[in-house]
Amino acid sequence: MGTTASQLGKDSLAEYQELTFLTKQEILLAHKRFTELLHKDHKGDPHARVPMDRVLTLPELKSNPFRKRICHVFSTSEQKDGSLTFEDFLDLLSAFSDSATLEIKSHYAFRIFDFDDDGTLDSGDLEKLVNCLTGDTDDTRLTTEEMRQLISNILEESDIDKDGTVNLSEFQHVISRSPDFVSSFKIVL
Amino acid sequence: MARNVNFDLNHPLVEAGLESPADEDVVHNSFSELIAEQSQNGLSDAFELQELQNELDEEGRDNLAYLTGRGLNDREWEDDERQTDPLVGERWSSDTLKVLSSMPSRTIGRSRGAIISQYYNRTMQLRRRRQSRPSIRDFSHSARPSIRGYGMEADCIDAEGAGASKRERLVNNLQNLSVSDRIRMLRAMPLSLAEKSELRTSTLQKERRTRSGSQIPCCSQLKYYIIIAVRQCWYSWLSFLHSLQLWQVALKRVSGRFGTGVLSYFLFLKTLLFFNLFLFLVTGAFLVLPQAVHPPVLSADRQSFSGLELLTGAGYFSDTVMYYGYYCNYTLHRSCRDDDGGQNISVSTGTTSSCLSSHHSYNMPLAYFFIIGAAFFFTCIILVYSMSKSFGQSFRIDKSHSILAMKVFCSWDFKVIKKTSVKLMSEKICTQLKELLAEVNQKYVKNTVCQQLWRLMVHGLAWAICIASTSACVYGIYHFSDFMHQQQQQALTNKHPMLKEASLLALPALVSLINLLLPGLFNLAAWMEDYESPSVGTYVAIGRNLMLKVSVLCVLCYHWLGRVAADPKSINLTCWENFVGQELYRFLLMDFIFILLDTLFGEFLWRFFSEKVLKRRRKPVFDIARNVLELIYGQTLAWLGVLFTPLLPAVQILKLLLLFYIKKSSVMMNCQAPRKPYRVSQMTTIFITLLCFPSFLGASVCVTYTMWSITPSTSCGPFRGLKTMFQAGKRWVEQLERDNPNLSVLARAHAYLVENPLFLFVGAGIFLIVIYFHSQVVDGQRKIISLLQEQIENEGEDKKFLITRLQHIHEQKRTSKRRLKSQDSNY
To answer: How far does CA B686 lie from the centroid of its chain?
Structure first.
């Protein structure tokens, strides 16, 4: 966990490799990219945080509509400001990597889509999610009526226990039937 | 919902409650106590409910939060919500909300404690399974922890210690797993890296004795590096292959602009391309190449190339590898040129393998027969396989097809990083969502009886028009082909040969013209009918176009196999197979030319006209159904012609390649995204089914009929001198038996399997039985699924019931306390 790749340390590299779905090369590359983001003063600090604004300058996240949510979900910051340490960053890349399982991907997808962090997807979350998907421009945005229908349909389809929200199990049930989810839930550095 | 249970961030209580898992356990306690209280049938005053008491003071705040929550989240669908979920309709106190939000089903997605306990359960399961059945490496994917394991244990343990002891036990469990299992488990835990590494170190600490750290010996490190390097190479190779996928960018652009409907046309085109590629490779490698290496002796009066051949396929092309007639009827030897003085049947050595040592030989008739058969057989298998796969994807066994939810949850492609592509994807998702919604909506339209009667009449009229015009056209084609046939019979030697050749183009041109014009008439009829749902309209259009194409092809097949092949002498044909092959080539080409014309006039000029003259902003809409059926029609021609023109797949490949680029640019330039968006959910399935059922099946029936019962020409082709093409195989088997008596089993098997229809019946019977069993299994699964769903719904009802009871008790407590308080103040 040093400033350069060589200083990352063999032990910690092995540990990261064991605990994440990333390969050695990917971890080293992630480290390189992360230190580029770090402010000069913090270069030596293993627990240094990169503020969210800076993380979002990464081209891989720049135009993603869920970029802020991704930062918030993977951030371990006390202030909930979405800032990432190197380990958080590795977590992020691990969840979005090639070899991550469907389960872990769906878990993080659920948390990304859970905009108010309350553990279930309710109609407010679904609305925000759909708005993220369709973009901000007026011609792609759904009308209020369409949105209402869409959300009630989604709940009808996926809310198996009929409690008005989609919980993680129900979400994973839906995801498990979509063969392309694993291939689309990926971010490659 | 939002205002009630989740309370966003403006509720201080709930937010505080969400922060720490320890707090959740408190809530769990209160919940279980309440349940216990209920079961004891006691609203006993002795039971102290601390939280509920505290709640009294916070009632005012609660109200405030409720109001702000309402102000923020009040939406139009409130009423709707209330209908779907009675749990939500009422106003809960913050305490009930706490209980609600800390129910196991809601905490797995959020809190660390819940995840740890979930994985504790899972490691337990894994250990148990290991003990009983060590071979199973995989474990259940269900993310739902058993309620018993989770809830009860959490509730009976002291609140503070619960998290810690749970962690302790998880660590213990992890230790007992094998190393690879532990790594897999740790990796798959959705916890942050720091927590995982903590878990890992505490696991390792207890296990000091064996693993001392990360000291790996040098040679294993080297091995390790090599493995990583190889894997990297493999991955990059895979990603390279992925990037090689045909037309990826083009397809993405099309789908970004026009949605899945138009995309399905292009995907279908791509599928057809692969089918033809396969066919071409097979015939090219095993028929064309051997024959081209050993060209037969040709007659001297060979026609020179004039240019018209490209259109008619006749003339110069007649004596090339392109057509059936060119192929020889003897065994090709390596020294073929030396001894091929005669065209006698010299199946002297039998199999190719037995004489490999002396000289290579290649029994052309046999190869021709078996290669065509095998090509059809494998195409059939691929078709049936892709059909079943596509059926499996579009028709799930459980009825609750969560398409909308799937679309919303799974459609975002996180890999896309380019700004324009992100925008395209947003557009695409929006279009698809609108399509889906339109489809859901159109289910709820009701008409009066009078309207329905009117509609019925209009539909009847439209169908009558379509059927009448189709039969008129078919009748016309029948007589026109008869007329052309007779024209050729009246020896047209005095005419100019070029003119004679050009006259061959009349029939294909007529058929293609009909294929071009009649769909327009059908569209007119459909416009008259004005279907409410676009997908029904599409299905009807497909049905009508299919009717036209099938009947046209039937007439043509009758013309070729019934008239031409039955009596080739009457029109001075020495090789009727060549003639039929040329006809098919001409039809294929004409079809292509007319599609081009259609694209030019129907799309490009029409857009030009409507923009410049009519001053309308609307562009024409791409007609998916018609275009796909044109593709299927072309493919049927290609399959029909493979027997007579082994190189026809190559022509078809060229045609498809050109068609892709032309259609793509035409669509991007001239068409607009469908105005009334609709979802083409089962479109691909239907297309592939159509390709399989009338198209491929029809073509293979025709080819089989030709092979089995039509006498081939006596002076050309690999089967000359035989009664039917099928006899090539029979003769070979007989030869084999004569040469090698040990192989008589094979001959008998051939006699029994191929010539006896009983085998066919038995095979078909077994096939049907297998299908029946499968359908029974699927039926059973469907029943189980519906039962399970019912059970889950019941459990949801139970949850609702418990929550309302909880709220009820809470209310009662509150009022009684208030009464007490007011009594106190009175005193």
So the answer is: 10
What ipTM was reported for this prediction? 0.87
Domain presence at residue A189? no
State the DSSP H helix or E strand holding residue B361, giving kind and residue range, or none if neither: strand B361-363
**Among candidate residues A95, A123, A140, the one where a domain is terminated:** A95
Evaluate whether residue B617 is within a structural domain. Answer: yes
Handedness of CA B590, B595, B596, B598 (dihedral sign): positive
| Residues B174 and B273 placed together within one structural domain of the fold | no
Beta-carbon neighbour count of residue B136 at 10 Å? 10
What region does B487 belong to: left with phi over 0, alpha with psi -120 to 50, or beta?
alpha
Q: Answer yes or no: do B715 and B809 share one domain.
A: no
Choose, out of B115, B193, B248, B430, the residue to mutate when testing the contact with A (most A CBs < 10 Å). Answer: B193
Residue type, A30: A
Say if the Cβ atoms of B232 and A23 lie within 8 Å: yes
Same domain, B470 and B584: yes
* In the block, residue with structure tokens 């294909």: B508
The tally of domains found in chain B comes to 4
pTM of the predicted model as reported, rounded to 2 decimal places:
0.65
The interface residues of chain B toward chain A in range 433-492, judged by CB-CB distance below 8 A, are 433-434, 437, 440-441
Q: Do B197 and A123 touch (CB under 8 A)?
A: no
Q: How far apart are CA B442 and CA A123, in angstroms?
A: 23
Q: Could you list the residue range(s) of the whole structural domain that residue A135 is in?
A: 102-184
Q: What is the pLDDT of residues B10-66, one digit of tens each?
A: 443 333 333 333 344 444 444 444 444 444 443 334 334 444 444 444 444 444 444
Residue B85: the pLDDT is 44
What residues have CB less than 8 Å from B816, skipping those under 6 apart?
none
Are the C-beta atoms of A31 and A5 separated by less than 8 Å?
yes
| Same domain, yes or no: B94 and B146 | no
Chain B residues within 8 A of A20 when measuring between CB atoms: 187, 193
CA distance A56 to B662: 41
Q: The domain containing residue B224 runs over which residues?
A: 218-248
Helix (H, G, I), strand (E, B) or coil at A186: coil
Q: What's the sign of the alpha-carbon dihedral A146, A148, A153, A155?
A: positive
Task: Report whether B694 contacts B546 (CB < 8 A).
Answer: yes
Q: B230 and B282 in one domain?
A: no
Helix, strand, or coil (residue B794): helix
| Residue B731 included in any domain | no
B536 touches chain A (CB under 8 A): no
